[in-house]
Amino acid sequence: MSSRFSRISLLACFLAHVALAHAAEEEKSYSISGFGTLGVAHSNTRDVDIVRDLTQPYGVGYTRQTDFGLDSNLGLQINYRANENFDTALQFVSHRSSEGYQPQLTWAYGRYLPNDTVQLRAGRLGFDVYMLADSRNVAYSYQWVRPPIDFFGGLIISYFDGADLVISKPVGAGIVRAKFFTGLAREKTSTGNMDDYLSLNGSRLAGGYIEYQSQNWLYRAGYSELKFKNEFPPLQGLLDGFRSPALNALFPYAAGLGNALSMENKRFKYLSAGIAYDDGPLQAQLMVNRLSSESLLFPANRAAYLTLGYRIDHWTPYMTVSAARPENRKIPASLPTGVSPGIDMLVAGFNQSINNQFNHQTTLSLGVRYDLTEKSNLKLQFDQIQADELFLVRNNQPGWNGKARLFSLAFNFIF
């Protein structure tokens, strides 16, 4: 009841701000804007669901071979400028996630700009751990139908409650920016099991990045840490087994194995670097990252993507290659087998839990963007996906060969 009440309260607050915005329209201190995507995706296989990211409990393929919800969304934003040094923003977004399609409050912050060098924000903020991460719901702003799944799909945070500080300085022909942030995550993400979710509520988040932007180039490197507050629900039974007094009487190190597998109070680390180039018709981006954790449940992996696009009048054909790979496929030694069926089951569960988190996927994407107006575009994209592991997919069926082809069409707009 309390969560429903909070959602109703947020919507009431939102409607109140809309009313105030219209009432104050003559003063020009309020502005209302928004964005959206109407998308359809078709998969050539019914043996697996391809998802946009891990926050989606299902995707396209197994659940529906032709799906209108994979990429479709709607966002609305209200900005209020009190004076030249202070402004505020509210943003609501509705899209497929662990919350269904209920509108989520993704931004709600106040910003203080004492001068041209410093910016300080506090409230609910976007998690821009990578280039484009903060705006990945605004499909109008980039050339793909969706950000490369192999790279962005593992992100389970889109916003947090806290504060950030940005410092900008002109250097040479460009600008250097340094950003630092800290706060608490609030979202929940699908575990891949029906009605089973990982709650990030209260998990500590901190990090920052430094970037250099010139006329045509953008260079960026960043590091962030997320400290999980809560346990991974599907893991609880296995952890209880490893921590049982009877088992530890036989194998005193069993509880240590369970603790190493646990996610509670463990750190998850994001390290990334990227380069973007935009000069006339040519656009290019290259990004690499490394994701690691203190838990055996999330083995370290690396991901990268390279995308090239070339504008020709209203058309921008593009190509993207993305991939994710585990750093090490070795599973730590567990308990000895053959002692008892119960212990054998624990060993199998231990090995399977880690195996399920290896990320090995490659995608080749070909597409074209057509700019209809200054505020709308149409995109057509083909994806050839090869998933050698099951980390970034849902509802895989026995006998699936790891291959999927997606055909996607999306109409994107801003207002």
Overview of the structural elements:
- With 415 residues, this protein is mainly β.
- The protein has a single domain (27-414), classed as Porin.
- Helices cover 15% and strands 48% of the residues.
- The protein contains six helices and 22 strands.
- It has helices at residues 2-23, 149-152, 236-242, 245-250, 254-261, 341-355, and strands spanning 30-43, 49-50, 60-61, 66-67, 73-83, 86-95, 104-112, 118-126, 159-171, 174-185, 188-190, 197-199, 203-213, 217-227, 267-279, 282-293, 301-310, 315-326, 361-373, 376-387, 393-394, 403-414.
- The protein has a 16-stranded antiparallel beta barrel.
- The longest helix has 22 residues, at 2-23.
- It starts with a helix and ends with a strand.
- Residues 1-16 have low confidence and may be disordered.
SSE diagram, text form:
Blueprint: H1 2-23, E1 30-43, E2 49-50, E3 60-61, E4 66-67, E5 73-83, E6 86-95, E7 104-112, E8 118-126, H2 149-152, E9 159-171, E10 174-185, E11 188-190, E12 197-199, E13 203-213, E14 217-227, H3 236-242, H4 245-250, H5 254-261, E15 267-279, E16 282-293, E17 301-310, E18 315-326, H6 341-355, E19 361-373, E20 376-387, E21 393-394, E22 403-414
Helix pairs in contact: 3-5
Structure summarized in a few sentences:
By secondary structure, the protein is mostly beta strands.
